[in-house]
UniProtKB/TrEMBL annotation:
Pfam families: LRR_1 (PF00560), LRR_8 (PF13855), LRRNT_2 (PF08263). It is a single-pass type I membrane protein. Residues 1-18 form the signal peptide. It comes from Triticum turgidum subsp. durum. This is Leucine-rich repeat-containing N-terminal plant-type domain-containing protein. Its main location: membrane. It is found in: Membrane. One of its GO terms (molecular function) is ATP binding. It comes from the Eukaryota.
Amino acid sequence: MKLVAFGLVLLGCLQSLAAPDNQVIALYEMRMMLTDSRSVLKDWNNNQVSPCYFDNVRCDQDGSVIGITLSSSGLSGILSPSIATLTTLQQLLLDGNSITGGIPQELGNLSNLMTLKLGRNSLNGSIPESFGFLSELQNLDLSENLLIGNIPNSLSNLSSLNNINLAYNSLSGEIPEQLLQVSQYTIQATI
């Protein structure tokens, strides 16, 4: 009996000494690229073994990150491409902050992503062509940013998309025909 108890204590100690997984590293890198005026990311550090203990992060039963909820959290800075290593991510909510810079092309690798909300920031540049690979995407909000250029034709590949908001940007060109079939869309562009 004492041996079993000792084994459990030893196992607990070894787990606390284990190296953080790639998800922890990705979230920590994301934190390092952002200014956190409200300390909502204070526990996002690279000493954690599991990201499931981070505030505003949701994991599935296997310990994989499936949600990041940081809407209107007072964040500024730029988006880290390391987010794309969170391959099980289904929901990324970063709307209503002061995030600047371009949208990382790498976000197109998040093949399980269902909801992407980056609206009401100060993101600039163009909408990544790689977003056409987000085959599970249902909700896309890029409204109220500083985005320019054409709406990528690749967004027409998103057969699961049922809500898209691209309003209040400086987009130009034609709206891909398939996007007009989406059940709820708000697209304001300079044509």
